[in-house]
Automatic annotation (TrEMBL):
<dbReference type="InterPro" id="IPR029021">
    <property type="entry name" value="Prot-tyrosine_phosphatase-like"/>
</dbReference>
<dbReference type="InterPro" id="IPR020422">
    <property type="entry name" value="TYR_PHOSPHATASE_DUAL_dom"/>
</dbReference>
<protein>
    <submittedName>
        <fullName>Protein phosphatase</fullName>
    </submittedName>
</protein>
<feature type="domain" description="Tyrosine specific protein phosphatases">
    <location>
        <begin position="117"/>
        <end position="166"/>
    </location>
</feature>
<dbReference type="InterPro" id="IPR000387">
    <property type="entry name" value="Tyr_Pase_dom"/>
</dbReference>
Amino acid sequence: MTSSPHYERPHLSLIQKNLPGWDVDLYIGGKEAVSTPDLLDAHDIKVIVNCAVNFDVNLVGDDQKAEDGRVASGPGFLRYYKLGLVDGPGNADTMFVAGYYLLRGALGQTFPDKPSYPRREKGNVLVNCRAGRSRSVSLVALFLHLEMPELYPTLASAIAHVREARQLHPDEWFETPKPVLIHAIERAADMIRLIEANKDRAVA
């Protein structure tokens, strides 16, 4: 199957306001959004969840570069979480399960009051991949369906909402997200429901 023509979309798209239980807004974007600090700051984004195995961004300041050949390391100017997905076949079935809990954990995580944890502030969340049209759409649709079933009772309804909010053109819906990723989040949703139904038993 050939790729669809390029369609313009915003660098950053608001997908869901006031996530229940966290009172933050959820965004999707591509490489342009995640690599533009002023844009992130304008939308009070404090947390990034990167879904792409083939894209990273340097959030560490130049003042933290090492002098002995090592790359820069240390805390970035935002909290950064990584889920390395392939945009197509090649992902383990459980990776979207991990992604759901990664996003949920990033929203609810708390930090010790220590200098080694300088980024403790709460703020809005950006889920990104290279273009913000397939991997990030899949993860956010899965998350909305499971977290807000009264608004998104099916994965299809969640995907439809994300496509509209992200301003994805109907001519590219056949690959936004990729069908193999839709199948993956269908399986992930079933696995997560099973985990949640049995988590009290596992603790006992």
